[in-house]
Amino acid sequence: MDSAPAALQVRERQIVETFVKLADTLVEDFDLIDFLSTLTARVVDIEIASEVGILLADEAGHLQYMAASHERTHLLELFQVQSEEGPCQDCFATGQPVSVVDLEDERDRWPLFTPKALATGFRSVQAVPLRLRGTVLGAMNLFLTDTGGITSEGLSVVQAMADVATIGLLQQRELHRVHTVEGQLQHALNSRISIEQAKGIISERLHTTTDTAFDLMRKYSRDNNAKLSVVSREVVEGTISAEHLTESR
User: Hey, what's the torsion of the CAs at 92, 97, 99, 105, to 10 degrees?
Assistant: First the structure.
């Protein structure tokens, strides 16, 4: 039996399941950070990229870190925000995808970002915009440990996923007319601060990684039908102990 068609069928099924998962997450009062984190993880699961990060614009129009599939990607995205250069910055500014097949060739283009990305272990990158018509809300970075970038098929799939995310973000504006999209994103950005604090507290008390700490909070929030931002705030305030989170595993 030829394994190639079977592998293709598995991949296609995974892609379909990903879109179903994203659609299921878009309930009326969905958790934005959890939704974007799910998106980054799914892109990695279907092996389009090694790691993924998402940046969204705040009220002032500046990109801010929102989600990443891995902690080192999180740190690299923070560096991109601080240095104000990199593929996501260019993608957001133009509203167009940015493709780099070999980061070694981009040292002049991004003198600060490129060495940092290479040192992290990445060799190529693809950025796709989160946009709808003329509205660009942010960008998604896809990092690969090999040169060559992603395939044209992979780019089409990822852009479609980014479009789903954009629709979800704009849906919040429609459901909450008294707020602007920027206001919704600002609230999520503020929630991210407490999530980072909670991750630090959990990882220190349980002697684990921040990735594991985040997974514990996400599982606890889902098991208890609570927003991730609420769980993180209660961890910071001491209402929920780090040890208590492990009891839901």
Answer: -40
